Structures are given as C-alpha cells and as structure tokens.
Amino acid sequence: MWEFDPAPETADPKLKARYELFIDGEFVAPKGGKYFESINPANEKKLTELALGGAADVDAAFAAAQRAFDTVWGKMPGRERAKYIYRIARLLQDRAREFAVAETLDNGKPIRETRDFDVPMAAAHFFYHAGWADKLEYLAPGRRVQPLGVVGQVIPWNFPLLMLAWKIAPALAAGNCVVIKPATNTPITAVKLAEIFRDAGLPKGVVNVITGPGATGGLIMAHPKAAKIAFTGSTEVGKVIMKSIAGTDKRMTMELGGKAANIVFDDAPLDQAVEGIVNGIFFNQGQVCCAGSRLLVQESVAEAVIAKLKTRLRVLRVGDPMDKNTDVGAIVSKAQLDTIQGYLDIGVKEGAELWQPPFRRPAKGFYLPPTLFTEVTMSHRVAREEIFGPVLAILTFRTVEEAVEKANNTEYGLSAGVWTDKGSRILKLSTELKAGVVWANTFNKFDPTSPFGGYKESGFGREGGRQGLLDYLQVV
Ligand code: NAP
Ligand code: MG
C-alpha cells in the first residue's frame, strides 16, 4: 500500500444550508414542507438539505414548463436559444472548480475526475448543443423539424452533473422545456446548475428542477403534460416506467444498465491494455453503466495480463476523494456498498477466486478496494449481473469467435472494448459485437458529438450527436 502526502483540493463548493425546488425561474419551498439530507459518502457527514418535491410541486413544474414552451421557448428562433445555452456553458466553466468540489463531496468520486472529466464534459455538452440550436433543419434535410413540448427527465447518481447536461442541453437546443429530477444521493449539482439557469437569464419555466425520491420521479415520467420522457438508471426501474406509460403517446428514451466485455487479444500492446482495463472498471469506482466489468482475455496472455493487473492495482490509490492523488474514491452510499459486498460474497460462494490489494479501510466512509475475480465462468452471477462497483470478472477465450460469442452472451448491450493490433479484427468485431459503443484500444472515451446508447436491456434511443438530438424532435 502507498503512503503519500495528501494534496487536498481547497476550492469552496459554496454550499447553502438548504436548497429549495427550482420552479418557474424561482427557488420555492416544497408544498409538503419536507426536506431530505445529502451526505458526503467519504466521511458520512451531512452536506446540506434539499426540498422533497411531491405531486403538487411536479404539477406546478409542468404547468410552468408548458407555459414557457407555449409563450416563449417553443417560439424563439434557434439563434436566440443558442445564446442562452452558450451562456450556461460559459457560466459553468467560470464556476468549474466550485462544481467539481461540490460533485466530489456529494458523490465520492475523486476530485481528479470531477475536475478533468465531469465538469468540462458537462460544459462541452452545452457548447456542442448550443451550436445546433440554429441548424436543426440540417438534421433532416428536406423535412421540417419541430420541438416536442415539455420533456420529463430522471437521472442517476453516478455522473450527476454530466447526466444533467446530457439531458438538458439537447432538450433546450431542440426547443423543448424541461422538468428534471436528480438522484436522491446526489442532488447538489442539479440545484447549483439551477442557479446558473437563473443567472444566465434563461426565461422562467424553461428548466425546472425537482429534487425528491424515486416516487417523485415516477410522477414526472407519467405526467400527462410530458410529451417525451428520458430516463437514465437501472433496467429494473426503466421497466416500471415503461409499464406506467404504456398506452400513452409519449416519446421515450431509456439509458439503462450494462455488463460490458473488454476483450484483450494476444497481439495487443499489453501494458496499454492493462491501463485500459483499469480505466474501464475502476473509473468512478466502477459505478459506470458502460464499465468494462467483464474482462475477456485470450488464454495465451491471460497469466501475463492478470499479473500486470495485480501489480498495477497495488499502486492504485484508494482514499479521500478530495485528495488530488486519489484514483479510487468512495462508493456513493452505504446501500450501494452493501450491494457490491453482497456480490463479493456471491462470487466466492459460487467458486470464483477473489483478489484484492492490501487495503486499510478508513474509520468512516464507504470504501472498497479494487477487486478481481478469476476462475470465473459464464454462468457465475458476477459474470452476468451488473455489480456497479470496482469489481472485475475475468474470463478467458481461445478464438475470435469464442470472444464474440461470450461478449454477446448477456442481456445487456451498452458498450464493449477491443484490444488488438489488427485493424481488420477491430472492424469485424465492431459490427459483430451487439453493443451501442465499441471502443478500440481505448475505453470510456466520451464526446458530445458521438451518440451513446444501448442494445437489448441496456435501453433504446441515443444521447449525443445528431441521433441524440433527433430523439428530442418531431420530424414532419
Ligand atoms: P435507479 O435506482 O434506477 O435510479 C435512477 C433514478 O431513477 C434516480 O433518480 C431514482 O431516484 C429514480 N427512480 C427510482 N425509482 C423510480 C421510479 N419508480 N420511477 C421513476 N424514477 C425512479 O438507478 P441508480 O441505482 O440510481 O443508478 C444505477 C443504475 O443506472 C445502473 O443500473 C446503471 O447501469 C444505470 N445507468 C445507466 C446509464 C446509461 O447511460 N445507460 C448511465 C448511468 C447509470 P432515487 O435516487 O431517489 O432513488
Ligand atoms: Mg437508486
């Protein structure tokens, strides 16, 4: 285990003691008068409290959004809408350090990630979509495109700010108004982003932020005024939502779970592949829908790759997320830590071999060291089910066909990785793998221009790029 000098990030997250709902351009108290706490999973301390939105608040938010759509936003020329979206992007950049610290405190992910990934990527999504706002006709040449109206959106806790940007930026660029709910575990950057909407002068009601529990999310998804709903979260909740709106004319996109295969062939540059494997499953503590949680390694190099992985994991720094040296931070909640721990027990019980580097658990906070399972077979639950934690199931294969067969043998289909020196093999696998994204000799690379989304139980619809925008428009 490494000992090192701490290098804590010191920027002020500027947290208020209490946050209200953001409805019709104002911060307002919830009609039910209730609040809930958000804690820092790194030390279990309370950060702030937030309004618990209920049915009356959701109704008020949809009424405000519909009014804004009918009277202002839906009629505004794209070039004018773009100015607001650019302003949001720039204000987010201005407050980047503050947002990075707030996100790290609320979620437990390392400050290095929020500083270098979450916040700049969120700003990039607003910039990219601002650029589209006055060019929507080029999405469907010869046809007319129209906004849908009010969209209801619900997001998870793993990339709170980035998911806000993925959802809100295309909706606004397309001319829609928004009612959105962040996850209970990580609501802070949503209400801080609402401050930015207000400061950017975004017309009132265009975006409404309702904090609250899953039941409140259910009300948003099924609301009669929602012309379209967009959900990111678990496959289980996604199915509940689909049932709740069956028979309505709502448009819907679903970004759900994953169990991606990261496939390493014997001709791959192995050191580079090991870095890609580590990034694929230990980025954001493995709480990533497209995480490379199944390593498929060619038998002839399996021993070498596993040995290199263990050497690398011994120097991965697990600890205080606010420390700039930290690689792996805290798990988002006690409940999520318990779920992951449950899978470790299941894996051992099913006969897989568990390996972890030496690790000293801090007295407070929800931590888990990076974990490997070897001696895994395709029937093991740790190889089939989404664990959503820093746990890698390692399987081997002999032939290309076997690799494809094993990679596709899952209910999910969000992403996959291929590590090989052969361009022809990359091309072949990128068509044969049933996954929305196939990364070649890299992993977890994101860009607002490229569409992201799933096959099978990983969902439908795309976010990002042309395809993502089209999901927010009616083509007539
Ligand atoms: P989750 O339990 O499905 O929650 C996601 C969001 O839905 C949260 O805001 C949650 O609120 C809300 N919610 C819960 N029950 C609801 C209901 N009945 N109706 C409407 N909304 C409801 O998922 P999670 O555990 O937070 O997140 C992890 C999951 O998200 C993983 O399965 C992961 O794969 C998936 N994910 C997918 C993507 C993707 O792009 N495909 C990206 C990130 C995460 P509360 O927080 O209040 O419970
Ligand atoms: Mg949840």
Count up the domains.
2
SS class: alpha/beta
Ligands in the model, by name, code or SMILES, are: NADP nicotinamide-adenine-dinucleotide phosphate, magnesium ion
What is the subunit organization of this protein? single chain
What amount of the residues lies in strands? 15-25%
Name of the CATH homologous superfamily of the largest domain? Aldehyde Dehydrogenase, Chain A, domain 1
Radius of gyration: 22 Å
CATH class of the largest domain: Alpha Beta
Strand order of the largest sheet: 14-15-16-13-12-17-18
By CATH, the architecture of the largest domain is named 3-Layer(aba) Sandwich
Mean pLDDT: 97
CATH fold node name of the largest domain: Aldehyde Dehydrogenase, Chain A, domain 1
Give the number of DSSP strands. Answer: 20
Provide the helix percentage.
25-40%
Task: Describe the protein's architecture and organization.
- Helices cover 40% and strands 18% of the residues.
- The protein is of the alpha/beta class and 476 residues long.
- The chain folds into two domains: 269 residues, 3-Layer(aba) Sandwich (Aldehyde Dehydrogenase, Chain A, domain 1); 180 residues, Aldehyde Dehydrogenase, Chain A, domain 2, CATH 3.40.309.
- The strands form five sheets. The protein has a seven-stranded mixed sheet, sandwiched between helices. A six-stranded mixed sheet has the order 9-8-7-10-11-19, sandwiched between helices. Strands 1-5-4 form a three-stranded mixed sheet, with helices on one face.
- Strand 8, helix 6 and strand 9 form a beta-alpha-beta unit.
- The longest helix has 22 residues.
- The structure holds NADP nicotinamide-adenine-dinucleotide phosphate and magnesium ion.
- The site of NADP nicotinamide-adenine-dinucleotide phosphate has 29 residues, from helix 7 and helix 8.
